[in-house]
Specification:
Length: 75
């Protein structure tokens, strides 16, 4: 769990590309309000050249987020 948290922080730092039309405060709230046992997931992965935008975020259980990885799957 500690390694997963460290990896998540690394990815967030590496991919801090925010869409100019995005609401940064809303994105921060989405991350802050993530339910226990869930993670904030990008529907279209940042690694697929998508930017951070509140409309591209969803909550996924940790295990599903690991399975999804950087695939284009919307659960």
């Amino acid at each position: 769990a500690q390694n997963a948290a460290a990896q998540s922080k690394y990815r967030q730092k590496k991919y801090r590309k925010i869409d100019i039309s995005a609401n940064s405060a809303l994105i921060l709230e989405i991350y802050r309000n993530c339910p226990e046992g869930f993670e904030v997931d990008h529907i279209i992965p940042v690694s697929k050249d998508c930017l951070h935008h509140e409309n591209n975020l969803q909550y996924l259980p940790k295990y599903l987020n690991r399975i999804k990885s950087n695939k284009l799957v919307n659960w």
